[in-house]
């Protein structure tokens, strides 16, 4: 349903049209009072408001003649969208791996952003770890021996002598 209205402002149904003095009383060919207004004549403007109200219903019904072409188009659009999503995921992964590599390389060199820098959060989640098989630099503390405890042993095994296996009486020795 639609409607429209048009009008002019200010609304003036009449205006005063001036009647100019065109008299030549001495008949010398020139006006006696040029530009003088004798009186005004009320003139109708013809101005009016216009209103319009329209009511209507519109409906369209269409039936495809080739449903197979529509189904092929729908499948092609789905595949295209899936391809675009995969391309986006690949680019995101490439970005994250590049960020991880660059932040790690710089951190190994001791180059990092200041914690108050707006760029600090770019590398904040990157951690350095030793690769498998690489032992990180470390130190061990070796306690000094106590003078009150004696480490003297009388057995040959404690002194580092080879152990001998004694044969039992039931087994023959070779």
Structural commentary:
The chain has 174 residues and is an alpha+beta fold. It has helices at residues 67-108, 156-159, and strands at 2-6, 14-20, 37-44, 50-54. The strands form two sheets. A two-stranded antiparallel sheet has the order 1-4. It is elongated. The protein starts with a strand and ends in a 15-residue tail after the last helix. The mean pLDDT is 83.
Number of E-state strands: 4
Biggest sheet strand line-up: 1-4
Total of helices = 2
Order of helices and strands: EEEEHH
Derived structural class = alpha+beta
The unreliable regions are: none
* Helix percent band: 25-40%
Largest sheet: 2 strands, antiparallel
Overall mean pLDDT: 83
Strand content: 5-15%
Instruction: Using the CA coordinates, give the radius of gyration.
Output: 54 Å
What attributes characterize this protein structure?
single chain; 174 residues; alpha+beta; two-stranded antiparallel sheet; two-stranded antiparallel ribbon; 2 helices
